[in-house]
Amino acid sequence: MRGLVVPFHVGDPVDGLETPAGCEAVRPALPPGTPQERMVVLFETLAARVAEDAIRLVYAGDCMAPLGVLAGLERRGLSPSIVWFDAHGDFNTWETTPSGYIGGMPMAMMVGLGEQSIVQGIGLGQIEPRRIVLAGARDIDTQEGAALATSGIQISSVEDAPDAVPDDGSSIHVHLDVDVVTPGEMPGLRFPAAGGPSLGAVERALRSLAASGRVACVTVACTWDPARGRAGEAVAATERLVAAILPTAGS
Description:
This protein is of the alpha/beta class. Helices cover 32% and strands 16% of the residues. It contains eight helices and ten strands. The chain is globular and about 40 Å long.
């Protein structure tokens, strides 16, 4: 199997999320109610699939899905370090967010801050901040940035990210939000952030991580809007990055 696709954005279905052939969709019946309640059901299903089949590649419509992936890796007995490629900090809480967007909170959730109903609902253990590398972030809210600065999370450039991972032989979970790439080379993004590394720079960093032999699973946040123009270019650029981090993904 090439991988899984979770065609949802903060608990709501995403139509037209294009991913490679051979991916199995994770699409359980979700309850009405809050996004948190829906995501608990969604990510519990995802965690079970990651745990039972040793899944190595997960495509998703947001940056929340890694919570389910990490829960699944824990059930496989893994306590991975995390390299989180993203143009945004993803470290807001209800107290710091200026927008109220829960999709900007997953890293805070996994270290035990802010909204905890999802991580508790799927049984995800608290991640030590020192085991997380945030790479390429440049669009960070003011209070979010202050929290990150004292969090213990390692803040890195994309280029330096492979060398920032704890050198302890642990497995690695790579989370790749494709909006880390400069918008000129990754068009149609929901939340584009000006500047940023080139597609080639991200590709080289991913190749370096792959060469470590420690990558257990990769999540790819396909954060382009399928309804916008040039989505096909974003799909092609994403596939180039996936080939760099998991060279055998298509086999």
